[in-house]
Amino acid sequence: MEGWTTHTGRALALAIDNIDTDQLIPARFMSIPRSEGYGPYLLHDMRRDINEQLLPDFPLNRHDGFSILVAGRNFGSGSSREAAVYALIDAGVRVVVAPSFGDIFSNNAVNNGLLPARVSAEVAGKLSNTLGDGTAEMSIDLTNGMLTLDDIAEAFELDESWRVKLINGWDDIDLTRRHIPKITKFKGNRSQTAPWAWPAAAD
Amino acid sequence: MNAPRTMLDKLWTSHEILQREDGVSLLWVDRHLVHEGSHHAFAKLQERGLLVAEPDLTFAVMDHYAPTRDRGRVSDPKIVRMIETLRANAARNDLRIFDLDDPAQGIVHVVGPELGLTLPGLLINCGDSHTSTHGAFGALAFGIGATEVAHVLATQTIWQRKPKAMRITVEGRLGHGVTAKDIALNWIARLGTGGAQGHAVEYAGSTIRELSMEGRMTLCNLSIEGGARFGMVAPDEVTFTYLHGRAHSPKGVTWEKSIEDWRELATDEGAGFDREVTFDAADIAPTVTWGTSPEQALPVTELIPDPCQADPAKANAVRDALEYMGLTAGRPLDGTPVDQVFIGSCTNGRIEDLREAAAVLAGRRAKVPGLVAPGSAQVKVQAESEGLDRIFVEAGLEWTASGCSMCVGMNGDIVGEGKRCASSTNRNFRGRQGRGARTHLMSPAMVAAAAVTGTITDVRPFLKGIAT
Ligand code: SF4
Fold it and tell me: May I ask which residue range the UniProt record assigns to the signal sequence (chain A) (predicted)?
């Protein structure tokens, strides 16, 4: 994963609350290997009618080349499927701005370099209104936690550890493996103090 | 004297290997459960040339894609690939796998507790949001995404910032026909799907203590629908009785020690919570969802909401949901015709759930078709030994093998476009049970009543003379 500090791209409003992970990528596409790309399945059933035709009015179908979504409350609620994040990333999205996010979704997003930028409902509404049915250039400054659109400049919220991770593009497995001696020691202690924590052999 | 601590505090400290300067902790994982959907994580592991760090603590379960009919002959190549991939990953890493023909196969959140793999005091991870189910035993159990699954596979640890602590207390006696499912749908409707975001929820109070393990699991299972990644109940005699003698439960002197340790887990008197909410059990009625989010739920006796009278911030959501669901504002929920029913899932596919549904269906006929998928192969055997399968079949419902089935439709058990399903599952999201499917969540007994009348209906009149 590549780290990043600033991003400038076209922003698009998707002012709908509770866009859950089942919307972001319907279950039937989840057996596809990632190498094939998940972009075409992003919000598949909201974007297409039953005959697979794109619905012309849906915001994502009106424009190409957007990399920032301004969404509603509780974006990415629901399942732990990381495929929801893969679909966004593979469709070129780098940032989602919303008043709140599903907890597991945010974790998954940061693990894939996607920024879940939290703003108040008022700010999200203001951004959506400014964007209307169109797109506009938005800039994200990860270091200072600021976003800019036209004459709107607002701070967004992000857990400090996530900011650092996004900036550095850190991979947790490498980071953790540096702590192996501590992990081994912990395991030894736990097996003494809580022997029941290891599964007993079935009779 | 030490400061009083919550159960969350105790579970957290006992798993914390270290804490980084930014406050994020590295935690030891006691149990890691994987399923077919974990293929992304195994692929990441293989890319790095790593093997599973602790195969003895990692268990693989075939559930999401498990065919419920004719297991020997799966024809869909996508499903075959998912099943074969999990088999190959389990074999390469020397994992115990609960394969399709295993007598212990079933939905991961049903199998873990049933086999005594789930215990109080453990930290349990699974790449599935309903991992919160296992918290019913007083465990720190939470769902994780694929990158985190790969991390646990590689290191048997997870990085996590400690959530805030929230306590939901329910006091008093539940009314006849009111279940754990109704407690959950009720609190989510009142607090909203984001109501517990960022929090670990501990359920407490006399109503919760009176619940069976099955009921506690249903409640903890649905925590994630209220935004909480963790749900938990303090372990007590009910917990210990449930676990005693299970296949992988501690045995002999270790069992004695475990009980002693587990008794210490309960929240200390006077410990502080970041948020406290209290409900009165007597205020909770059989509850049904009418919309496309679990917070869009009401007592079955209510009218379908009118967007014009809704909170303005939510009016559009109400309008959209009613349109998708094909419902008319102002009509009673009771009496809404359904096309089919489904009983099963990690929320309500356990033996007690099947008993409750069978109690309503006994000697009655279903007016609409439906599927009953037991949560595990063991639940299936148990149900058959009690004759529950016959009740379902005689009522006209289909009795199948165990798996996630119509909860998520990955195995091909789906609800058709525009069809309305009364379902004992956990998500009424658009398209969850199949594209265009209209899902109404409710308790298994309520689903059974819907089957009998062919409409959403109050189960209570059906229970006259039946002790629940
Ligand atoms: S039964 Fe449904 S919610 Fe539970 S694990 Fe399976 S798909 Fe997920």
Answer: none
